[in-house]
Amino acid sequence: MASITPLIAGNWKMNGTSLALGEVRNLAAKLAESAPRCTVVICPPATLLERLSEIAAPAGIVTGGQDCHSAASGAHTGDVSAQMLVDAGAQYVIVGHSERRTNHGETDETVRAKSVAALSAGLIPIICVGETESERDAGKAEAVVLTQLQGSIPAEWPGHGIVIAYEPVWAIGTGRTPTSADIAQMHDTIRRDLESRFGERGAATAILYGGSMKPSNAAEILRISNVNGGLVGGASLLANDFHAIISAV
Ligand code: PGA
């Protein structure tokens, strides 16, 4: 089996002004005491990306955007391109988060175009998929996630690859999480799909779990087979909580 470096990514969403940079300094100090056994990524709001990247880099923390446009530049007021994220120090970008899919009407096709733009700019896209509660209740969770995977992942990727994040929509920001058995089943399904379509590269792709991951449940979730890390929202905002999750790897 391919060995995959675990990855813990923090998604700050629309939270954080200059003051929040202090949390990154605190996290950097904690990581200096004992090196993490995973890649640590922070995806702050675009306004903080450059300053945060400067603080994070010496501590070995890498940064990412929370979204990018599919075009490199142009008349797209308010949008940020993948190249701009790279220019501000990013190495990753989250695409297709359920909040983008819901609040901005993003389709699998949009997400795929954004992933292609990210890859061509040299970023690793963290491509998010996940079912709603009514889809799970209707027994459609796997079918929904497989359809999203089919539509959202580019047909091919250059060397640096992609990351998949499975985030059940009903678990995001709610404090609720699926059972370990349900997480295992979905991550196995995703792994089989990636392997059948992309062979060795699919076997080597990190699959993150996201949705109410916190210090108290991280160790249990990160132990599940085919869970290669986490995409963490609320619990990534405070250095203590985020560090506890990183330490659970
Ligand atoms: P949460 O968010 O950890 O606050 O549930 C996760 C996410 O939306 O990426």
Written overview of the protein:
The protein is an alpha/beta fold and 249 residues long. The protein has one domain: TIM Barrel (Alpha-Beta Barrel), CATH 3.20.20. The protein has helices at residues 21-33, 49-56, 82-87, 98-103, 108-121, 133-137, 141-152, 180-203, 215-222, 239-247; strands spanning 7-11, 39-43, 62-65, 92-95, 124-129, 163-166, 206-210, 229-232. Strands 1-2-3-4-5-6-7-8 form an 8-stranded parallel β-barrel, surrounded by 6 helices. Strand 2, helix 2 (49-56) and strand 3 (62-65) form a beta-alpha-beta unit. The longest helix has 24 residues, at 180-203. The radius of gyration is 17 Å and the shape is globular. The two termini are 19 Å apart. 45% of the residues are buried. The model has no long low-confidence stretch (mean pLDDT 97). The site of 2-phosphoglycolic acid (PGA) has 13 residues, from strand 8.
Q: Report the portion of residues in β strands.
A: 5-15%
Low-confidence stretches: none
Roughly how many Å apart are the termini? 19 Å
Which structural class is indicated by helix and strand composition?
alpha/beta
Question: What's the mean pLDDT score?
Answer: 97
- CATH H level: which superfamily? Aldolase class I
Q: What would you call the shape?
A: globular
Strand arrangement, largest sheet?
1-2-3-4-5-6-7-8
Q: What's the helix count?
A: 10
- Evaluate the radius of gyration: 17 Å
For the largest beta-sheet, the strand count, sense and barrel status come to: 8 strands, parallel, barrel
CATH arch. level architecture = Alpha-Beta Barrel
| Number of structurally distinct domains | 1
